[in-house]
Structures are given as structure tokens and as C-alpha cells.
Amino acid sequence: MTYNVDENGYYGEFGGAYIPEMLYPNTEEIRQQYLQIMQDPVFEKEFNDLLRDYVGRPTPLYYASRLSEHCGTRIYLKREDLCHTGAHKVNNTIGQILLAKRLGKQRIIAETGAGQHGVATATVCALMGMECIVYMGTVDIERQAPNVARMKMLGATVRAANSGSKTLKDATNEAIRDWINNPVDTHYIIGSVVGPHPYPDMVARFQSVISAEIKAQLQEKEGRSRPDYVVACVGGGSNAAGAYYHYLDDTQVGLIAVEAAGKGVDSGESAATSYLGKTGIIHGSKTLLMQTPDGQITEPYSISAGLDYPGVGPMHAHLYASGRGEFISITDDEAMKAGRMLARLEGIIPAIETAHAFAIFEKRKFKADDLVVINLSGRGDKDLQTYIDYFKL
Amino acid sequence: MSMMNRIQTKLQEDKKLLSIYFTAGYPQHGDTVKIIQSLEEHGVDMIEIGLPFSDPLADGPTIQESSTHALTHGMTTEKLFSQLQGIREKVSIPLIIMGYFNPVLQYGVEAFCKKCREIGIDGLILPDLPLREYQLQYKEIFDAYGLLNIFLITPQTSDERIREIDAASNGFLYLVSSASTTGAKSGFGQDQQDYFKRIAAMGLRNPLIAGFGISNAETFAQATEHTKGAIIGSAFIKYLTENGADSAGDFVKRIR
């Protein structure tokens, strides 16, 4: 039994490539080449050198003693917030830009919600001297203004997505339409473990460095490579996929996925896909999806732009359906308070997405000697205005 | 298949076929049947009835907006089927439902196909249901209810894949004229003609019907020079937006 992808691009019943023929040549080109490219020693060296010297890896695994004492269990933080650009997203964009170069592409497109993936894409495009266009929902452009400015500073073009709820889903739609219109010279750097096969697997592999490092670092600090739990917030699911990756088939390690409940799972304003979703097709993948009984995709809501997505990656849909993963939903209010708690206890202001993961201690008890690793996926600089407004700072 | 499907019969006629796409429930919720009847009366050969979807990835702004409008005004799969009840007492040309796969999946693929058969729908075009998934999971169901599944090919589709799609098809191949979403203004240049000519010369089993970027008599003539027919969608929807459902016939008169 494996919880990883099979040879057809499925995680259990989820995944596949439900794409119009217009996108077939592009995704097929990647499917045929990605494993070979990623396993090429020259590529591996280039990727690992950049992760070390440019991104700043390995990121620390930090024992959070005050937080541990407060929550009554033993908590380590995987400090992805210390990556260059402020979140784990750059692990994937470094990998995909190197892949795009191998495929001979000259133009890069991306979607972004919180702007972290947009910034990470704009960053690697600047690094490689490639044209960069980032699609972002109009609502997100407003609530994540600092990241919009960063992308522009880096030379990227930010294009507003005005359809639907004007958030991440709609930005993704626009990026896919761009790719349909520019099939030859363009590579689409998807930022999460979503989209048609092989994207979920490719992005998970690029992010898997997170759990590879956790294993080695825990071994060094605790004399064991296996925590009792790995906790991560899940929108599309890329930071969680990276943090779980090397533990997927090790069922002694509990995998906890934290979703955004928005104003409450039953409030009609939520993004808790595992609770509210049914199997469907979104952005080329069969997965759990928030939708009407008629199969129309419904508009999600979360205070955090990065979790404001009506679907979830197929790996996570499978973790949920199979019972391998434990899914917990956290409201806006709970997340904001958890963000402040982390700031006051450990001197770390997390991204609001990440703050959701820290709210689980109110919902779920851990034993005093449990070893819990939380993936601290991003820092909160971009969210300062939201924190200011919420806490009237 | 024991009985010939209406699409197959139509494809044997010695003429260039004009096919029209429109979004069900647009411009008004109750316009669907009126538009279908009017198109047949004015000599249209085949109709694609668009089942609206919230997130139509392969469509440009015109079809996106018409879909959103139709959904906002209450169109659902169930309502479309109820509007189409009895349609075969009124029109005899081939009718195809075109839409995205998710609404079909939620309705239940078999229930959807069964309903299509009862109503007299002849085929489906579901751009985001690719060949492989279709063959592995759904082909038997489509076949059991006598529905043709129409596949798209594009300028980037390799010859090898075109042959694979041709072998799996029993109606026509939907020849997407250029790398674009629907309604993109590319016009017809030498590139399109060369591409159509190249595909026509492959000697495929299935006739070719061109679509995307065809908007008037001139582009219809160009698109059908090397193909069996052409599909007009966005241009027709724009015309309906400006002139209302009663103008459907006027639009057709401008094409032929």
C-alpha cells in the first residue's frame, strides 16, 4: 500500500489529467521528461546548490520550548519561513525554472493567491533572466499588496483575474487560459500540488526536501528520524506534501492537515475542502472539490489568501479518503489568535496561512511526550496589514 | 452500432456543414428550444448545446460571460434536460451537448448518457475528458447509449496522437483552428490553411469540422475549404447578446 502517486498519475481514485486537448502536448512533454530531468546528476547538483546557496537550506528545525510548555507537548518548528522570499514556495520554483530551461521555454506564467508563489516565481525568473507573468485575483491583489509590489520590483508583470470570486481559483483559470494561448514557448509554474498529472507529483518531489531535512535533523537532535506527528496547513497542499513526503508510507507518523474553516465550516464562507467537498474535477485533476449538487464550483472563503481555494491536491484527497491523514478545520478567528500566540511565545510572526496550523492545540490534545513537527511554511510580513486591522495594532 | 447516428447520417450529405454553438439558457433562461428550432428552420446542419459551467477553462470571455449569465439565471443540468424534453418532435438535425466534465460527473455519467438517449441527443463534446480517461472508464457507457464522443485536435497535436484519436472516433474530429481559447480573434491566415490541408491530407477515417475563430461568411468559407464543415460559437453568442434570441435566424442568413 502506498500513499504516493501510481504510474497512471493517480493517488487512489484521485489525480489524473483532465485537461483539454490544447494542453495535452505541454503536459505530456513534462510527463515524459520530468523524472529523467530531475534524476539527472547535473540537474540535481544545480538544484541542490541553489537551495543551499541561494535559498538558504537546510532551514533549521527549531525546538520551540515556550510553545511546547504552553501546549503541553514537545514541538519542533521546521523553519521554512526562513527561506529566501519568506516561504517554502521557492523550493518548487527553483526546481521548475531549471526544468523550464531544460525544456527550452522562454516565458514563465504562474498563478498566485497569497502572493508567495508569485514572488517566488518572479524571483527565479529574475535569477534566470526570463519573462514572468503572474495571474492574481483582484481581491488578493488588494489584501496582499506588499507581495504585489515585490513582484513588480522583481520585474514581473502582475495580471488581475476578475472572474468568479477574484481569488486563487480564478487566477489559476486565467493562467491555464494563457497557457492554452501560448503552448510552445511558455512553461506554467504551478505553485501547489494541484493541476493535471504530473504537476502534483513534480511539485511534491521538489518540496520533499522539507521532510528529507526533518528526518536528518530529528535524528541528530532526538536520536530518531520519526516524529509522532507532522502538522501543516493545507490550501492546495504544497507545504504539507513536502513535510509529509518521506513519511507518507510510514503509518506510525500521524499526518495532520489543517484547513481553513473561514467563518465556520457551515457558515457558507469557508474553504474546508475535506469537510465540504465532493469528488470532482478542478484545474485538470480529479479531487475533493467544493461544488453545488449540479457540479458548479463554489466560491471559497478564508481570511488567508493562500488557503482560499475550493479544491485540494489529489494526494491530500487520498490521505483524507483513506483515513491516513487527520484533517482539522480552523476558523479565521482561531488562526489570527494562534498567529499572535506564536509571535508572543516564540518571537515569530507567521503567515496567516501558517497560523492555522498553530491553532490545533485548542482542538486536539497531544501527550506530553509526543514529538510534533509543525511546518512553519511562511512568515507574516506580507500579512501585517491584516494583523493590524484585526488586532487594531 | 446497429442504427446510424444522426451525426453520421448528416456527415454523408454532399455539402459543407454549418454547425452552431450556443450556451443553454442564454440570453434568457427560456430561450433554449426557441433558438434550436430557429437554427434548424434557417438551414443550420448541426447544433452544439452548451451546458454552462462555472469555470470554463478552454473558453474566452464571450462564452465565459454567457455561461455565468445562464447559471445566475437558474440553468442547471436537470433544467436543461427538462427544456429539451420532446425536442425530437420539433427538430431532426443532430444535437450535441458540449460542456465540461464535472457537471456530467456529478449527474452521474451513466444517468447523463441515459437521459441524452431518451431526449434524442446524438453526441457529446467534453473537452476536459481526455481520450485515455474516456477509453478506460466511460467509453462503454457512451456506446451503450448510442452517443458519439467528439474529440478535439489542435495545431500542436502530433500526427501519432491524431491517428490515435481518429481510431477512437466514430463521428467527426473537432479541428481547433489555432492555439487559443474560444472566440480569440486570430482570423484565418496561411498558417491555418496549411494546418487544415496537412490534416486533410492524412487520410483519416473521420471527417473534419473546424472550430474556434470562425465568425462570418468569409471565415466559414476559408475554414471549410479543406474540411467538411465549421462550427461558429462566440460570434453567434455576441450576436444574440446584441439582438436577442429572435435574431438567431438573421445570423444564419449572414453565413449562407
Q: Quote the beta fraction of chain A.
A: 15-25%
Q: Biggest interface: chains and residue counts?
A: A-B, 34 and 38 residues
What would you call the structural class of chain B? Answer: alpha/beta
- Over the alpha carbons, how many angstroms does the gyration radius of chain A reach? 19 Å
Query: How are the strands of the largest sheet of chain B arranged?
Result: 5-4-3-2-1-9-8-7-6
- The fraction of residues in strands of chain B falls at 5-15%
Mean pLDDT of chain B: 95
Parts with pLDDT < 50 across at least 5 consecutive residues of chain B: none
Major sheet attributes of chain B? 9 strands, parallel
Q: Helix proportion of residues of chain B, in percent?
A: 40-55%
**C-alpha Rg of chain B (nearest Å):** 17 Å
| Cα-to-Cα separation, first versus last residue of chain A | 50 Å
Helix amount of chain A, in percent?
40-55%
Structural class of chain A: alpha/beta
How many strands in all of chain A? 14
Query: How many strands in all of chain B?
Result: 9
Entry summary:
Chain A has helices at residues 24-39, 41-55, 65-71, 89-102, 116-128, 138-143, 145-153, 168-181, 199-207, 209-222, 238-244, 273-276, 314-322, 332-346, 352-355, 384-391, and strands at 10-11, 14-15, 61-63, 74-78, 107-112, 131-137, 157-161, 186-188, 229-233, 254-262, 278-282, 285-289, 325-331, 371-375. Chain A is an alpha/beta fold and 393 residues long.
